[in-house]
Write a structure and sequence with these properties.
- The protein is mainly alpha-helical.
- The chain has one domain (2-66): Winged helix-like DNA-binding domain superfamily/Winged helix DNA-binding domain (Arc Repressor Mutant, subunit A, Orthogonal Bundle), CATH 1.10.10.
- It is built from 4 helices and 2 strands.
- The protein has a two-stranded antiparallel sheet with strand order 1-2.
- The chain starts with a helix and ends in an 11-residue tail after the last helix.
- 14% of the residues are buried.
Length: 77
């Protein structure tokens, strides 16, 4: 899983510093939203040919790591 996470990059000059895939303009949240909406890996790869299967798996690994936080603070705006 750690090897997959190297595909997730943070760059303040790309997508306002949000986590992206391999410094491309594909935010991790976009891929997770597509998966949550029911798209298959194949459909995502067809719509975004610059991505690879490992990129999708990296997004899932990243989300799994985020879910392992000890506590979450709710911020009211």
């Amino acid at each position: 899983m750690e090897n997959l996470l190297t595909r997730i990059t943070l760059n303040p000059n790309i997508c306002h510093g949000k986590p992206t895939i391999r410094n491309k303009r594909y935010p991790v949240e976009l891929i997770l939203d597509l998966l949550a909406s029911g798209m298959t890996h194949g459909e995502i790869l067809e719509d975004y040919p610059a991505l690879e299967e490992a990129d999708i798996m990296a997004c899932l690994a990243y989300a799994a790591k985020l879910a392992q936080v000890i506590s979450i603070q709710r911020v009211l705006i």
